[in-house]
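Z., the sequence and structure:
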Amino acid sequence: MTQKQIYIKNKKAGFEFEIIQTFTAGIVLTGTEIKSLRLGKASITESYGYMHNGELWIKGMHISEYSFGSYNNHDPIRERKVLLHKRELEKIEEKLKDKGITIAVVNLYITSRGWAKVDIALARGKKLHDKREDIKLKDAKREMDRSMKI
């Protein structure tokens, strides 16, 4: 039996932010959350991270309620704790002191061992002219690929 790989990507993150550094971390989930995540019922487009008491938390991540769950079902938009090494947390906290730096959630996936992992990034918001420049570069690359294909 082959298992479908679950990989949820935040497409807005690359467009809205300039990614400085990425980290891969575990995430604390309840039983019905991981079951729902294995079905691919999650969205991370509006999620972001914040530090609280030396711990990293993700806010705005939506994991739909498990359809076969009972009264023990989870809250779909609850805040979830991110598991990182202490040194990494200290590094992130130090970088967050810089002006304009935020924590963006880039990817959410399940490993081959069945663990839920999240890729977070230290990011800086892009200005409108930066976004326009990215669109121009993407269009130029697409045109070059088309002309090479013919």
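Helices lie at 11-16, 31-38, 86-95, 128-149. Strands lie at 7-9, 17-27, 42-43, 48-52, 55-59, 62-63, 80-83, 101-110, 116-125.

Let me know what you think.
H.
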